[in-house]
Write a structure and sequence with these properties.
Chain B: This is Na(+)/H(+) antiporter subunit B. Chain B: Residues 8-131 form the Na+/H+ antiporter MnhB subunit-related protein domain. The complex is a heterodimer of chains A (802) and B (141). Chain A is mainly α. Chain A has helices at 3-25, 31-47, 50-54, 79-102, 110-129, 133-151, 158-189, 194-199, 209-223, 232-235, 241-250, 255-267, 271-294, 298-320, 330-367, 383-397, 403-420, 426-429, 432-456, 474-492, 494-509, 529-546, 548-552, 564-586, 591-612, 628-646, 650-670, 674-697, 708-734, 742-745, 748-752, 757-765, 767-789, 791-801, and strands at 59-66, 71-77. Chain A folds into four domains: 1-194 and 236-245, no CATH class; 268-562, no CATH class; 590-737, Four Helix Bundle (Hemerythrin (Met), subunit A); 744-802, no CATH class. Chain A contains 34 helices and two strands. In chain A, a hairpin with a 4-residue loop joins β1 (59-66) and β2 (71-77). Chain B has 141 residues and is mainly alpha-helical. Chain B has a two-stranded antiparallel ribbon with strand order 1-2. The termini of chain B are close together. Classes of the chains: A mainly alpha (802), B mainly alpha (141). The A-B interface holds A 674-675, 678-679, 682-683, 685-686, 689-690, 693-694, 697, 752-756, 758-760, 762-764, 767-768, 770-771, 774-775, 777-778, 780-782, 784-785, 788-789 and B 27, 31-40, 43-44, 46-47, 50, 54, 70, 73-74, 76-77, 80-81, 84, 94-95, 97, 99-100, 111, 113, 115, 118-119, 121-122, 125-126, 128-130, 132-134, 136-138, 140.
Amino acid sequence: MSWLHLLILAPFIFAIFVPFLYKKMNQRIHTGWFVLLIPLILFFYLFTFIPEISSGNTRTATLPWLPAYDINFTIYVDGLSLLFALIIAGIGALVVLYSIYYMSKHREALHNFYVYLLMFMGAMLGLVFSDNIFVLYVFWELTSVSSFLLIAYWYQREKSRYGAQKSMLITIFGGLSMLAGFIMLSMIADTYSIRTLISSETLNTNTLFIPAMILILIGAFTKSAQFPFSIWLPDAMEAPTPISAYLHSATMVKAGIYLVARLTPVFGGEAVWFWLVSGIGLITLLYGSINAVRQTDLKALLAYSTISQLGLIMSLLGMGSGALYFGYGDESFVYAVAIFAAIFHLLNHATFKGSLFMVVGIIDHETGTRDIRKLGGLMHLMPISFTLTVIGGFAMAGLPPFNGFLSKEMFFTAVLNTAEKSIFNLDTLGFLFPIIAWVASVFTFIYSMILVFKTFRRKPTFVRVDKQVHEAPIGMLLSPMILGTLVVALFFFPNVASKYLLTPAWESVLPTLAGDLSIKISPWHGFNTELMMTMGVVVFGTIMYRFLKKWYGLYDYYPDSLTINHFYNLGLQSLEAISEKTTNRYMTGFIRDYLVYIFAFIIVVVGGALWKFGGVVINHSTDAHVNVYEAGIIVAMVISAVTVLFSKSRMTSVIAVGALGFLVSFLFVLFRAPDLALTQLVVETVTTVLFLLCFYHLPELRKEMSRIPFKVTNALISIGVGVIVTIVALSANGTRLFDSISTYYENSYKLAGAKNIVNAILVDFRGVDTMLEILVLTMAGLGVYTLIKLKSEGRDKDEGAE
Amino acid sequence: MKEPNDIIIRSVAKVAVVIIFTFAINLFISGHHYPGGGFIGGLAFASAVILLFLTFDIETVRKNIPLDFKMVAAIGVLIAVLTGLGSLLFDVPFLSQAFGYFYLPIFGKTELATAVLFDIGVALAVIGTALTIIMSIGDDR
């Protein structure tokens, strides 16, 4: 356990105390103030890593978890993970600060909110720092779970539950396929460590390489809301706005990006990887930006814009992966710039989108609506919010003097470079890259303008009678202001960020080129094609924005029945219907049916195995002689067993079953097994009492009137089980695969100091078995207790809820 | 659970229960070298208590033996697990047992084994579970 482990575990540990703090202190102090400490401390602690990491060092710490399986909680800090961790802790601190003013301490269940939030924070930190792929997977799924809980935070709302379920289904599906990919990858490379994977050379010759890549990409694409898995993100906007700002724009949706960046050294340089990552990225970019324009809800607009920006980053990572195709050379540096642009845009996106979400939250909070059609004219009422929106919106549109401009220009450079290349058949389809990028940028420009001007200019049309709309309190504005300042600062001092944060991250994505990667970001690099493209975007975008009404109707031509959402809903409905039908078919509620399944299964599996592997060996040669006492007891046992079948009253059956049990214990006595005989006797006594007790509650035994097929099935099953068990018993006696191990136990006096072998086996040689047996016994006892004692209360409660 | 007029069974039970208890304890202790042990001893003990249930009613027994048998079972399992963990303190595998011969004042040379501690856990778990089940079912009206 090192400080690094504590760093990841700190949010989880603190989360334990949150409910107590909430209970004791919430009346006076908003719980958020306590929670705020954690991301702040984490942020400053991580900040101290920067000098060390930026000089090219890395840090590791290992905590054994499942050492026998080589799964250890290994933490690996390098440029990439540090950048992500700083974003997670930094935005986390700002979001918690913002939430203190956003979430009312009187009305909201703050303890749930902050526990989920801290859980997410810890999981996300664990995700980016894990070196072991399975530990990474665990944290990955934990982020999905906490996201689910946070989306469903207002679980009373139908839409929240719908959105939470959707995000859960899609991201967990992706997570599971990613796990399959990880398992394949570990089979190929024979390691669980990402660092070892990266340094392994000849992975790509294995036949599992491409399937593993595709499965892992599905995981990354679902998490990062890439087309066509993007549909969960707009519905995730049902979460409280601080959560949307944190999870669904700045951090969690970037987990997929992180994974792609992290595994670029493993998969990069492959044509499939290049085309999948950059192709899906570009499609997502276009899809998101076109759909964002048609949204009327501000948060939905931001959601689609997030999808599109994630696509942009993803496509940059795809294009940059080409760098690894060349090994080491001038060509590779041309591609490598795309990776830098991806990392740079990732940081920029976190700043401007975070601030935009917070401002939208403010607007929602103050006016009570997020509908663009109802909003307008807020400029004079909320001047600070307006300024922040301009900063964020213009940065998103890629205009100077904001950081979005720089990364957008680099994006254009990357697509132009890619279009000129001829690797991976780029000479045929490469020309599409700049075209898609440019069209998507025009739409990005349009929705950014919609966000800025439709909300703040025009005449106000919303009606809010209960209170005057005014600027938000300073505490709420503080977080977006800090982010807005960063947006501007990153434009003017990009090289500082580049030197300390971005280049180290860049080097960890492209470890083979590390050391020679350097870049000088400058806002002005002459009248080149990129600048022309940006100007084209502005001009064309402005024209389209002016005439938005004229072509807006085009969206209505796209039929609803062809949207992915429609397919998702249809699929979910039919899935539910089919599974319900299937389940109802065999889950009848009759114990008899369940017993039939169980016994039929036993007959098929055990009987089948016996038949298939030729297990039926009946060998009488070594059997002892049957003496007259044994024969007598066996006859008595058969008689009492048959009595059970034909007895008319329950009392007779109970007594007959008891007699059977006692007869068995006599048999043990005859075979000189006093321990077994004793146990059997006492167990039989207790069981008979139990039977008598149950007997009190049971109805009269009636002659069963049932159809012939029913009885025939029963008879077949019972005879089948009887025959199978008999054959197994006889074959077990006749088969000697191994030497008997009983000689070992005969040393019990020497080994365990006990003359009673049975007892030595129970408590010493096989002590773990005994321990687990009494555990099972106790659980069974508690199960009976719960069923009997708690049934009536529980049932009443359930009915009350429905 | 029955009308309280079974004089004979009551008189017999009062004596028998003591004998069964003694026998149960004897079974438990002799387990190391002779037939018996935690499981059998526990069950025999439980059957004595069950005899009390059958003779007197559950309320009377509960008043005289004021134990929550669910807790008894849980404590039993806990003891068993703890003895297992205890062996980790001596850097031997989980649930290793040890034994030794000591000279005690009255008993003379006596064998003491950690297995007995484990067996106590087994016995308590068995007693607790058996009685929890019987009492739950018998008490259910």
